[in-house]
Amino acid sequence: MQRTDSEAAGVLLGKVGRAGRITLNKPKALNALDHDMALAIAAALEAWAGDDGVDLVVIDAAGDKAFCAGGDIAALYHEGKAGRFDTARRFFADEYRLNRQIAHYPKPYVAMMDGIVMGGGVGLSAHGRLRIVSERSMVAMPECGIGLIPDVGGTLVLGRAPGRLGEYLGLTGFRMKAADAIFAGFADRYLPSARMGEAVERLEASGDPQAIEDLFETPEAGELAGRMEAIDRVFALSDTAAILAALEADGGEFAAATAKTIRRGSPLSLAVTLELVRAARADPSIETALAREYRYTFRAQTLGDILEGTRAVVIDKDRTPRWSTERIEDLPRSEVEAMLRPLGEDELTF
Asked: Quick one: which of 111, 112, 175, 206 is 20 to 30 A from 337 by CA?
């Protein structure tokens, strides 16, 4: 069947051979996910779940820079500054429902994570059954730097990472290449970018993930496995202030660089991220992880730092956000609790 444009301009949807095919198609915007795209993908997945002509789903992206660099936060910024907070809330709710749909999808869902994979891109890939990275892949959850949290079920992926790696990745936004993404549990296999097209063609023709097993290779060694002793020691500490104090007292190059990175994030986002990663580790359910994340994102534009973080990083690009609390050590515990209280009738439902 011929590929067709969906109602959402940023994504191509259709059936090719035995595969349901999703191609993110906003390469100039690094394939940033918007609300219409999320709804269109969800509708296609629902249709293909009951379609006997579809054996698996393959998602990839146009361009050579990014699979998906995250959600379209610039649009949400302008809506939020105008006092239209429901726009972001509706987007996050529907995006999170899509993330859950992917996690529970009844057919193999194969993500070709070639290029930048951040935020919303993690939500479109990390919950799938087969997640493939290349030498061009760069995977990260850098949301604390814009006053958000690792959402889209990211706290669950982080909570499942080895040792205390989830806390480290969530607080620092460390950019993982292929081997580190596999080690951390964000990806499964490595394939050179030049062979991605061949892999997709085989999947379309066969409808069987095993059809590409012989294509996989071993990526260049990563950094994280060799740092686990230090990461586990420091990132098991009780809170973000204690973690920072230990890093700044260490004196080593890695500790100093890590502390400097964390200091750039929103203190509120950092504290909430630490709590949610640990909550997801204790209760590893995609539904509860997403519901907790939504409590934060529902309030992010009114009580959090997302508007200021987006202004500093995306809009004005001055990289000097003025967070609501300047230092992590000064953040009242009550503010963290306020962001994570149940939402009552606004609680995320599935």
From this structure: 175
